[in-house]
């Protein structure tokens, strides 16, 4: 982990990517906590996760029945689905842009 050591600067950078504002004491706390999480992952990497297959689906294996959804694909169904949306635009869910185009805003 030394080459990828977590620093307070990296914690600030991660917080900025997540659009979180951290106070200085929070930066220190989160840096310590994130280091502990990464140390746990290092321990987990020591274990083999390669296990033999325990079985394979057989020809006669029953699968769940395919069923259509509860919402019909028509104006009434669309209205029911969109009724739960906080913002609608042109008959679709409207969500904020989460990935920038790279151009300065």
Describe what you observe in this structure.
- The chain is mainly alpha-helical and about 100 residues long.
- The chain is about 40% helix and about 5% strand.
- It has helices at about 10-15, 25-45, 75-80; strands spanning about 90, 90-95.
- The longest helix has 22 residues, at about 25-45.
- It starts with 7 loop residues before the first helix and ends in a 12-residue tail after the last strand.
Q: Average pLDDT value?
A: 80
CATH arch. level architecture of the domain at 2-45: Orthogonal Bundle
- The first-level CATH class name of the domain at 2-45: Mainly Alpha
Strand content: under 5%
First-residue to last-residue Cα separation? 36 Å
| Tally of contiguous helical segments | 3
Tell me the CATH topology of the domain at 2-45: Histone, subunit A
What is the N-to-C order of secondary-structure elements (H for helix, E for strand)?
Answer: HHHEE
Number of strands: 2
Please identify the oligomeric state. single chain
* Main sheet record: 2 strands, antiparallel
Strand line-up of the largest beta sheet? 1-2
Provide the structure class: mainly alpha
Determine the fraction of residues in helical runs and give it as a percent range: 25-40%
* Unreliable segments of 5+ consecutive residues: none
Shape designation: flat
Calculate Rg over CA atoms. Answer: 24 Å
């Amino acid at each position: 982990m030394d080459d990828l050591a977590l620093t307070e600067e990296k914690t600030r950078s991660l917080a900025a990517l997540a659009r979180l504002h951290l106070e200085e004491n929070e930066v220190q706390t989160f840096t310590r906590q994130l280091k502990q999480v990464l140390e746990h992952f290092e321990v987990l990497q020591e274990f083999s996760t390669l296990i033999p297959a325990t079985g394979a689906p057989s020809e006669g294996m029953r699968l769940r029945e395919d069923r259509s959804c509860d919402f019909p694909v028509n104006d009434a169904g669309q209205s029911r689905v969109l009724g739960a949306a906080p913002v609608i635009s042109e008959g679709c869910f409207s969500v904020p842009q989460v990935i920038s185009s790279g151009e300065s805003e």
